[in-house]
Amino acid sequence: MLEVQGLGCIRGSRQLFGNLSFSLHPSELLHIQGPNGSGKTSLLRILTGLSRPDAGEIFWQGDNIREVRETYASSLLYLGHQPAVKDDLSAAENLEYAVQIAGIEPSRRKLEEALDAVGLGTRQRLLARFLSQGQRRRLSLARLWLEQRSLWILDEPFTALDVQATLLLEARLEAHLAEGGMVVLTTHQSPAIADGYVRVLSLDA
Amino acid sequence: MTIAILKSLLMRDIRLAMRRKADVAAALFFFVIAASLFPFGVGAEPTQLRAIGPGVLWVSALLSAMLSLGRLFSMDHADGTLEQLLLSPVPLAAAVLAKIGAHWLVSGLPLVLLAPLIGLQFDLPWRELALLTLSLLLGTPVLSLIGAIGAALTLGVRGGSVLLALLILPLYIPVLIFGAGAVTASAAGLTPWAGMSLVGAMLALSLFFAPLATAAALRIVLD
Question: Is the pLDDT reported for residue A203 higher than 90?
């Protein structure tokens, strides 16, 4: 369970949000909404522990994430604004190194399955510089098929995806939630996920 | 698990460098050219060349190391890989050490291997060639380690390369003095091991402290 108490974030002289408290239980998806510049990405980065909040604390399974950094890191999968894809590596190499850095040793078969799942199976030897924006996004999302992590924090995962890939991602999110996983995401679309799972948090500008 | 992650980081950086050979070659080429131009400039007087040889090679190595430092973290920063590294379950200082190791293997080690060849141009005797190579072998990792702190601190800063030079040059000077000094001391009939041990001590110290400082700097930059 992820628990957030009294979170506040100040950028420059402007308060993006203050006194934000919520908790996220297994099988829940938190959809963070808000206009551009309302602090959605800042909030996600604070939740991952990359940024320090100006006020408040975050607890993972009851422990402050500052004190259990490594346990938290091995339960968390964060996909940020940049897809973290290297132009000079092939699709398969990119995925392999990305999950290895996250602490998982994937088998060749698992890697191929994940690439197949996101529709890059035939392009796994292609250097990432030749992939389109949508394909790069698919490549970074392929980690969702490989890593067994309970908490997913996804920053705009639907950007640049076509209709088919959007459906694919929605199905993957639902499967994860059905298994008792947790998701925090930002998107300007309204993902088609069963209502029982979804909670909405609105940040005002 | 930690060792596997570090090994994969090291291999990834080496593979990336091999895919961008031009960048690696540029720093090496600079070292060769800079050091080779001196005999033309100062004249082919063997005693004079022997006297300046170790210093010239050391200065060229130092400048060449600075050339490639900017790339150590900047590409990972730009494409978001650095964020993933910070969220990896390995201690960040260890991950940083793996990255620095890859950087040294690609940009420092080739320089050390070329040094005896370049040293021949300065008519250095065998003993001094060997000492020079040894001092570079101990000294170039120190350059990469100290440079990493500067590279992390100047990440994402406009005009970062100038700032980087200003930050780390003062820290490079002791390495230069004792590294080149060890070889010139031997040429003057003194023992080279005093200077050499000091370079070794700097290596031991920076091997321990530089990754910690770099990791702290990266956390601040990405906050």
Answer: no
Q: Quick check: A201 and A30 in contact, CB under 8 A?
A: yes
Inter-chain residue contact B15 with A93, CB threshold 8 Å? yes
A15 touches chain B (CB under 8 A): no
The residue-averaged pLDDT of A48-55 equals 92
pLDDT reported for residue B161: 85
Judge whether residue B151 has pLDDT over 90.
yes
- Asked if the Cβ–Cβ distance from A103 to B5 is below 8 Å, we say yes
Tens-digit pLDDT profile for residues B4-45:
899 999 999 999 999 988 988 999 999 999 999 998 998 888
* Domain extents in chain B: 2-222
CA distance B115 to B98: 25
- Structural domain spans, chain A: 1-75+183-205
Contact of A79 with A91, CB cutoff 8 Å: no
For A159, counting Cβ atoms within 10 Å of its Cβ (0-12 exposed, 13-18 middle, 19+ buried), the class is middle
Average pLDDT over residues B182-187: 90
Which chain A residues have a beta carbon less than 8 Å from that of B223? 50-52
Instruction: Confirm if B52 and B46 have CB atoms less than 8 A apart.
Output: no
pLDDT one-digit tens code per residue, A84-109:
899 999 999 999 999 999 888 888 89
**DSSP alpha helices (H): ranges in chain A?**
40-48, 69-73, 91-101, 108-117, 133-141, 143-146, 163-178
Give the span between the Cα atoms of A23 and A59, in whole angstroms: 9
- Residue A205 confidence (pLDDT) above 70: no
Is it true that domain A1-75+183-205 has CATH number 3.40.50.300? yes
**Does A86 reach chain B within 8 Å, measured CB to CB?**
yes
Judging contacts by C-beta atoms under 8 Å, the chain A residues touching residue B3 are none
The upper half-sphere exposure of residue A86, i.e. CA atoms within 13 Å in the direction of its Cβ, equals 24
Kindly report whether the global pTM for this prediction surpasses the value 0.90. Answer: yes
Contact of A205 with A35, CB cutoff 8 Å: yes
Which residues make Cβ contacts (< 8 Å) with residue B191, sequence separation at least 6?
A: B185
